[in-house]
């Protein structure tokens, strides 16, 4: 995929996206979906937005896709103001929406060709381009099949292939693997790794913490329209939780008493205790020393999910 245009129009040391005090408010309401956030996305990295429902991720992604104007603050994409240059910028972006929105009655190849024509690409060019993209998406053998006959994973790969018809410099992915089985998710991860290796900058939202750890060089965790923290997955884990977590399960009604006996950094959940420590086995030894007899005990490494829940809470939000 040709990246010469990106290098020619944007300095190599310039952030591809810069936001400062970015806000999004919707008409007729005082509610701020995005309440003044700042971040930078560097060339060639994979940058993630994590957060519970209603955190402001989708509103932020719509502004980055140049389809929703900011209500306040500043936003620069590829060095340009999206309010002024939105149409030109959209031609340089690829968007993978949460909904595939494919034409089920067209074939796999026809979906790519028709989409390419929207970008002003010639039919001759799109016939060649569609073959290249189908090979990349591992769908060459399905080129003549109608989309309605594809599995969910195949449709998702086709949606990603479709987003690449214009050789985008930035690819925006909204929940790229939601609803897919583990095999399909790993195939998609491999395709996204290849795109990143080819120089495409990835920006994604995801509810899967393992996906964020796998794909993102850096990420922000959003809550209530604000950024709770930013960093690499490893930095966030080191900053907010310990190296390991000991999970203990006790008979109903014994959690609180067990937590009091153990002391230390312990989180009481309805079904288990989470004991945060640099050495989970050492805490497990102390469990038996204080006379506790858990039903099950598990020592695991701390994950981004632990960070996410500590920063945003465990209660459901609408």
TrEMBL record:
GO biological process: response to antibiotic
Domain of life: Bacteria
Domain ABC transporter: 17-249
Full protein name: ABC transporter ATP-binding protein
Pfam families: ABC_tran (PF00005)
InterPro entries assigned to the protein according to its UniProt record, in alphabetical order: AAA+_ATPase (IPR003593), ABC_transporter-like_ATP-bd (IPR003439), ABC_transporter-like_CS (IPR017871), ABC_transporter_ATP-binding (IPR050763), P-loop_NTPase (IPR027417)
Compartment(s): Cell membrane
SUPFAM superfamilies in UniProt: P-loop containing nucleoside triphosphate hydrolases
Keyword Nucleotide-binding: yes
PANTHER family attached to this UniProt entry: ABC TRANSPORTER ATP-BINDING PROTEIN, ABC TRANSPORTER ATP-BINDING PROTEIN NATA
GO MF term set: ATP binding; ATP hydrolysis activity
Protein's membrane topology: Peripheral membrane protein
Family that this chain belongs to: Belongs to the ABC transporter superfamily.
One Gene Ontology cellular component: plasma membrane
Keywords: Antibiotic resistance, ATP-binding, Nucleotide-binding, Transport
Record carries keyword Secreted: no
